[in-house]
Amino acid sequence: MEVKPKLFASDVEEPGGGKLAETPRDRRITKLPTPETGRVKSGWTIEDSEELYRIKGWGDPYFSINAAGHVTVSPQGDRGGSLDLYELVRALKQRNLGLPLLIRFSDILEDRIQRLNAAFAKAIARYNYQGVYRGVFPVKCNQQRHLIEDLVRFGKPYQFGLEAGSKPELMIALALLDTPGSLLICNGYKDQEYIETAILAKQLGKTVIVVLEQVEEVDLVIAESRKLGIMPIVGVRAKLSAKGIGRWGGSAGDRAKFGLTVPEIIQAVEKLRAADMLSCLQLLHYHIGSQIPAINVIKDAIREASQIFVELAQLGANMRYLDVGGGLGVDYDGSKTNFYASKNYNMQNYAYDVVAEVKEACEERDVPMPTLISESGRAIASHQSVLVFDVLGTSDVIAEEPEPTTDDDHLILRNLYETWQSISADTYQEAYHDATQFKDEAISLFGFGYLSLVERSRAERLYWACCAKILEIARQQDYVPDDLEDLEKIMASIYYVNLSVFQSAPDSWAIDQLFPIMPIHRLDEEPTCRGTLADLTCDSDGKIDQFIDLRDVKSVLELHPLVRGQGSDTNSEPQTTEPYYLGLFLGGAYQEIMGNLHNLFGDTNTVHIQLTPKGYQIEHVVKGDTMTEVLGYVQYDSEDLIESIRRQSEAALQERRITLQEAQLLLQNYERSLSRYTYLTS
Ligand SMILES: *Cc1c(COP(=O)(O)O)cnc(C)c1O
To answer: What pLDDT does residue 17 have?
Structure first.
């Protein structure tokens, strides 16, 4: 098992009981990415790419690299069958499905469900647990209809159910979940209408469980059930004192937004008893947060919850279900550590711990073992989709060997040149400070009019040349002084990508979540450039400049230089480059619905791919938003907009400011655009 070599004191217990993953800020990069600069292209292998992008760490068993240097997808995991992602994208482009493109692999979803159920089945057998596992999928993780339909279908053999956290999600779950014996867990804030609907749905033969999340809901449930004359199945959500950690740790603890404290649970028990409804109380639920990176935190929570569970049984409630919520993590950086982007346990460890802890608590107090429920969303939905997007161009720092200076040149230029000449393994740190100081001086000299624009340009180029030379040396060193950390960033290229971070990877922007990102082809070629990604939005936050790394977080990603396109060397044609495709992986949970319309970039095209014995088939195509659609969200009517352009053209024609031909072309373009994709098309 791989372990992050030095970044955690993973054996140090926090006073609160949980281990705390350090934030990236605490763990700044102390080693720059290892040098590949010296390698020749022919020496680069796909194994080098595997290691560099850590695809085995986060992608196994679904993603790997083939001999052609393309990413391949094995949607059925270990059960064989795979397809070439790059070829798939090319085939989809030929069918007019432009990038950015979200590709969903239904088989992966099925495999995840099977894995989770197999893990619990194995744990139940191993511990001879006297109960079953009935998982539910939290709809909030990904509400797209095709995905929920697949989920219900694939979950049938396991009586997999759904969890709703709001009224609209309840509408989805009630209509789509038709698996006999599966559970429908009702969480979230509830009003009278929500509760009434949930209780009535019991009459359809569904196992609907109303989880009390707020004290007020107890009276509402009692009143509604009296009114309808139906005895519901009721659960309580406990606020555990065991705390989650990491990004989503705030979901637990006494001050958490949801759940009942222990005194409130006791109050609810008494109210239900007084209403003669204590037998309705059958479930205990908790949720300590998503993406729990450390197994001991999970254990602490399950231990505390098991105790509450057996106590409730002894108070006379008819306890039959224990719902451990979400939190089952995804290893985004593939490091298998308790870093926030990783997890130091696997699905099987998780199932073992849940089963073992509940069994022990029940046996000790002679309470029947409950049906176990987990609300694992991220662990089920993350892997099934890949976002593929193209690079539009790059902005590179020019770092070529500088022209020697002469005595006629300005002193500051001569100083910079001398600095460049002097750089060696012994002096590189000092040289970096000198170069930076001279460059700053050059800029202020320019500000006072002592340096011409051409001279300033030379000064900046000399500075970049110094940085490039220093960086080359720094990359050879095991440890680089802190003050050189920014060097990689200064010298990084900017890759302009055809996507909106706000729409397609909102958590990367909002909470610095890391997703594995890598080229999906050219992986037999050394990626000699280092870059950050800049998206299409006119927002400086619309970028990705944190990438997964074994040791820590990288500020630049290794990428390939763009290759000039063929046959475009006529002078009038803009220079084209060959397509360069990147993939963002493990983004199947939460990103789609949280994505927003910043700058009016809409939903991307989505396709559902299923493996067949002969290859694959496209199950569904969900076209991305058109401009008319996104404009509609902000209350613009396309017809009105066209009408306005028509009127303005007419006026311009009258005043002979535009020709008839120009006016027609403009109107044509305008109308056509409205029915088009909001992203750049190539
Ligand atoms: C969000 C949420 C989940 C899903 O958590 P994951 O970590 O994605 O598995 C489960 N239960 C509740 C109550 C939630 O709010």
So the answer is: 33
Nearest in space to 584 (alpha carbons), one of 525, 530, 506: 506
Residue 255 pLDDT grade (very low, low, confident, very high; cuts 50, 70, 90): low
CATH code assigned to 411-488: 1.20.58.930
The pLDDT value recorded for residue 25 is 31
Ligand 1: centre distance to CA 289 (Å): 7
Residue to mutate (ligand 1; options 140, 239, 290; most atoms within 8 A of CB): 290
Residue 632, pLDDT above cutoff 80: yes
Percent of the chain with pLDDT over 70: 90
Q: Whose CA is nearest to atom 2 of ligand 1?
A: 326
Strands 581-584 and 517-519, how do they pair?
A: antiparallel
Measured from the Cβ of residue 306, the count of other Cβ atoms closer than 10 Å reads 24
Instruction: Specify the CATH number of the domain 131-383.
Output: 3.20.20.10
Nearest by Cα to 344 from 356, 333, 355: 333
Ligand-binding annotation for 323, yes or no, is yes
d(CA 205, CA 321): 18
Q: Is the dihedral of CA 193, 194, 199, 204 positive or negative?
A: positive
Q: How far is CA 614 from CA 73, 82, 259, in A?
A: 15, 11, 50
**d(CA 243, ligand 1 centre) in Å:** 15
Task: Ligand 1, residue 140: give the atom nearest the CA.
Answer: 1
Q: Give the DSSP letter of residue 590.
A: S
Rounded Cα distance between 649 and 644, Å, is 9
**pLDDT tens-digit map of 284-325:** 999 999 999 999 999 999 999 999 999 999 999 999 999 999
Q: Note the pTM of the prediction, 2 decimals.
A: 0.91
Q: Which residues have CB under 8 Å from 535's CB, separation 6+?
A: 496, 497, 499, 500, 501, 502, 542, 543, 544
Domain boundaries, the chain: 131-383, 411-488, 639-675
At 479, the pLDDT band (50, 70, 90 cuts) reads confident
- How far apart are alpha carbons 681 and 415 in whole angstroms? 47
| pLDDT recorded at residue 400 | 87
Q: Is the pLDDT of residue 254 over 70?
A: no
131-383 against 411-488: fold identical: no
